[in-house]
């Protein structure tokens, strides 16, 4: 009887000790968050009407696949105008580099000869009237008109000579430089229009899943508005909000366990990012004493076994035990 009593007491002590040990030990810290994918937003390059939509929400797409097509009519017209302007500037530059034609030089020489002949005639007329005016045979007004005509003829002669010398010296280097700059500007404008024309077919830059096509066929989105939003990446990642007490015990590269609601298995993850500044904490992460504490965003990379999980699912992450 005594032996049974001692055995029974031993088991009571063992159970009591185990209960006290479990009561003293704390569960590993856990934090809440959601599953996320990297998002790519494809903005509208021009305010043109949507003429084709090649995908639907939730569809998997490959890199380079057409998502949305905008009306190219206006951009094609702008490209044609820019190319015509570039061609005009190109021909103008060629004309300046080639210099004056020999026919222009011959015409300038002929104009100079005619001006010189007129000047000689006007000077001779003035010389004839000057002695006659001294004797009173010609009025002073006639003599002044002859003098003015001779001066005017001399001026035309100098102008014709200067025009000929300008042609003989050829095009100024500054004019050629200006023409080259104008040609470069016109070519750049044409290139910009050509690039814009290529962007009117909005394609997927990476393989992924179409999250949303905000506009419908026939809509005209403003410049910069999102035409398509893609979810990319081989697998989602966990975005969690780490309370301030656990911040010092978590580091980039730590291995953690991720529990997704609706899935019985735990997913292994690695901390890839940990913010150094606190952020606003969503209401679902405010639990217990953490509601009055700061929280820090962290991102956890998941393996390929989580590739089929959709974005937006709530989750909880078991953090590493604090180091003593």
Task: Give the proportion of residues in helices.
Answer: 40-55%
| Envelope shape | rod-shaped
Radius of gyration: 45 Å
Can you tell me the residue ranges where pLDDT is under 50 for at least 5 consecutive residues? 1-24
- Main sheet: strands, sense, barrel: 6 strands, antiparallel, barrel
Strand content: 15-25%
Distance between the termini: 47 Å
Q: What is the count of β-strands?
A: 11
Structural class: alpha+beta
Strand order within the widest beta sheet: 1-7-10-9-8-11
User: How would you describe the oligomerization state of the chains in this entry?
Assistant: single chain
Q: Whole-number average pLDDT?
A: 84
How many helical elements? 6
Order of helices and strands: HEEEEHHHHEEEHEEEE
Describe the structure in your own words.
Helix content is about 45%, strand content about 25%. It is an alpha+beta fold. It has a six-stranded antiparallel β-barrel with strand order 1-7-10-9-8-11. Strands 2-4-5 form a three-stranded antiparallel β-sheet. β8 and β9 (about 265-275) form a beta hairpin. The radius of gyration is 45 Å and the shape is rod-shaped. It starts with a helix and ends in a 6-residue tail after the last strand. The model is unreliable at about 1-25 (pLDDT under 50).
